[in-house]
């Protein structure tokens, strides 16, 4: 398996633009997680899905953030409109139940 | 609520020294899982180890060893004979079933190993 695949690896966008981050989890994993990493806040959970269903989105900072998982092999995290404070590295991870989560390479987002 | 504390923000050692990274956790759940991840300068997060709350056996994997003590709510990580390639940020994390096994991370410890 190729592991968790995220795209794009880097994204630079202007404030106010819509940003869509993509994730392909490992086949057979039933949980998918979106994390954000910043120097100030460290690694924080944004949302997670079990069997494609969003379970807890309490970590999503604002209504500008939304996430979907239309099927077991694809998820998106969308920010609309983006703001400079959204600049961070966004990680997607997948796991099977309580087993270890495997992370994608991350998307480094810069909003100018 | 779950909490993971890594009190050491940065550690610097000279190659071949042994180094221990501390991790203290808090949870009211009786079943939980503890993890260590490594984040090298390239930025990816690499899984190192997972332990469940019922297994307090210490584990050794090459130069790496882990000491899990429920009595002190600690899950410490020791690197023996450190190498420059060990330079990275190391994260301790906790998961429980009622949060979907989502990882709750500590702030991380940045380890610098110099020649």
Question: Keyphrases for this structure?
Answer:
heterodimer; A: 112 residues; mainly beta; seven-stranded mixed beta sheet; four-stranded antiparallel beta sheet; 11 strands; 0% helix; 55% strand; B: 115 residues; six-stranded mixed beta sheet; 51% strand
What does this structure look like?
The complex is a heterodimer of chains A (about 110) and B (about 120). Chain A is about 0% helix and about 55% strand. Chain A contains no helices and eleven strands. The model of chain A has no long low-confidence stretch (mean pLDDT about 95). By secondary structure, chain B is an all-beta fold. Chain B is built from no helices and twelve strands.
Q: What topology emerges from the helices and strands here?
A:
The complex is a heterodimer of chains A (112) and B (115).
Chain A: E1 5-7, E2 10-13, E3 19-24, E4 31-38, E5 42-50, E6 53-56, E7 65-71, E8 74-79, E9 88-95, E10 102-103, E11 107-111
Parallel strand pairs in A: 2-11
Antiparallel strand pairs in A: 1-3, 3-8, 4-5, 4-9, 5-6, 7-8, 9-10, 9-11
Chain B: E1 3-5, E2 10-14, E3 19-21, E4 24-26, E5 33-39, E6 46-52, E7 59-61, E8 64-69, E9 74-79, E10 88-95, E11 104-105, E12 109-114
Arithmetic mean pLDDT of chain A: 96
**Radius of gyration based on Cα positions of chain B:** 14 Å
Sum up the overall morphology of chain A in one term.
globular
Share in β-strands of chain A: over 45%
Helical content class of chain A:
under 10%
Tell me about the largest β-sheet of chain B. 6 strands, mixed
N- and C-termini, Cα separation of chain A: 36 Å
The fraction of residues assigned to DSSP E strands of chain B is over 45%
Low-confidence stretches of chain A: none
Number of H/I helices of chain A: 0
How many strands appear in the DSSP assignment of chain A? 11
Biggest interface pair, counts: A-B, 25 and 22 residues
Low-confidence stretches of chain B: none
Span between termini of chain B: 41 Å
Separate helix tally of chain B:
0
What is the overall shape of chain B? Answer: globular
Q: Biggest sheet of chain A, in brief?
A: 7 strands, mixed
